[in-house]
Amino acid sequence: MQEKIADLLRDINGKERISDFNMDLFENDMLDSLGIAQLVAALEENFNVEIDPEDILPENFSTINEIDALVHKDKV
User: Fold this and answer.
1) CB under 8 Å to 68, separation ≥6 — which residues?
2) Which pTM does this prediction carry?
3) Of 15, 21, 43, 70, which has fewest CB within 10 angstroms of its CB?
């Protein structure tokens, strides 16, 4: 799932694909607040989940691994 999240993120930000799933996305200018909104929509569509608005916090989107954990949490 991390691979697909990395692909979605690349589609959103137009930058190189991320291979380090623990890299801080904000510090490396790979994600911003608008990108989070776009990514939430893409995650919900691609993984058939509904992300709780209360979970849309920067700390849940800081790395691909954090995003993966969030998607799995909302898939239950």
Assistant:
1) 1, 2, 5, 21
2) 0.91
3) 15
